[in-house]
């Protein structure tokens, strides 16, 4: 949809109110046009010496009525259109948010938060300005222009009409010459604002890093640069828009001067009466204001046009990941997951980040995925969640290609803890019960018990009603991760994916959480969770995946080893090497020694100490 079609569709939705508003405003302008005519007649009578007291009183009465009617109509019309303008702002922002909700991560990688914010804030404001002030003044100005033109032609002299209105024909030339410049500069201004908003967002988001590096001056310097760019762009914009805004009323003034001089001459030579002369000069004077406003309207139109184009571009983006055409499998997920020969590269790149990945996880089983940084673990999770679309025929859930499921159904059946355990700036209750519009506090509490964060939350003065601040700044790293995990417990989906979500949690707590999440956990009964969960645990830490039914070791996007913990230790490959390194054990140590119970094998001797040493200073209570 082109920019202006978006605008029209919004106005069309509120067409009745807009029509009423325009009619009322036009009426207000029409009333003004009668004033010169009344005064003209008054002047003629005065000149002919037949003006009575009654005539004067009735003239004054008519003028008062015209004035009152004009003011009331203008006020009503403006109020109506301004109220619609506010609704339009809300509608437009809601539509933007809905659109953003459909776009995949790839889109966000190419567009900064600041840029998107500038759409939602400044572009929408400019559009509102057009939909309120623009439409009001256009209605008032055009009605006035037409009415004055009519009065001048019908009740006046054609020569004076040509002299008075002739200069107005230069206005279209101004629009043609200056309009595109104003539009382009307005786009540049909006882009510069977006870029500044991005800097502010990054500085505030990363304030701890900025402070820790003592980099405030560098950051302020960068910010000043952005502000300088905005000022430069604004100055360029203001130069042209002010020129435009001044030249349009100048045309009316030129007409006024012409009418004053030529009209005076015609009056002296008795071609027109003094009443016509008064009326004509007042008509032209009346045009000055609306033309000044029309100048502003044309300015707003150029700016709104630029903003509408930006918004229209965004609205036209086709989501990279969307529901397929045709019949879709709209059935609840059970939890069996198969990946078959999956090879994937990010759009626009030249390198495969995953190569020939295959595995099968039965419903209720746990798959562990480990591998060095950049080996493709998160990419694999993203593909399972369809944050990116995998190639057709490579990822299956319950025997069907995931591309055949509606996205909403697929995501309803999956719960995911991202690597950064993102929290929203709302209460702990709402963060944990995120999957419900009105979270059930008891379920929230039980989920928090399972992830061992209940005690911490209870110690906060406001308990579960505690606001966590932006991205959970008021919580420690470990608390944040546990709250994020509690969110997936609460969701109770058949497939759950934890992407390195236990990294900031000490091993004892990690062990407790994993045990609670296990099917035998007493706490889960309290939550009345459905069935067994298919769980995928991505981690750098082997203790997180040790209990998994199968563990995949990824390296450079390929599975280099697979098996269960004991088998992999026995195989003596990369997993066993990593195990020894992480456990701080020597070759002679026997982490997977036979005869251990599940509990004993969970954290083998030496591992806790080894990890504790490795993680010293990195884990809990970071904030
Ligand atoms: N949006 C993207 N566009 C292009 N390449 C990407 C994108 N995201 C990740 N990559 C690349 O894909 C590879 C795998 O990244 P991925 O995040 O899946 O690794 P990972 O194993 O999860 O790493 P880590 O353990 O550090 O989180 C990396 O080389 C990374 O640079």
UniProtKB/TrEMBL annotation:
Domain ABC transmembrane type-1 residue range list: 20-303
Organism of derivation: Geotalea uraniireducens (strain Rf4)
Superkingdom of the organism of origin: Bacteria
Gene Ontology MF annotations: ABC-type oligopeptide transporter activity; ATP binding; ATP hydrolysis activity
SMART domains: AAA
Full protein name: ABC transporter related protein
Subcellular location: Cell membrane
Bilayer disposition of the protein: Multi-pass membrane protein
A GO CC term attached to the entry: plasma membrane
Transmembrane domains' residue ranges: 16-35, 55-76, 130-152, 158-178, 243-262
UniProt key word Transferase: no
Keyword Transport on entry: yes
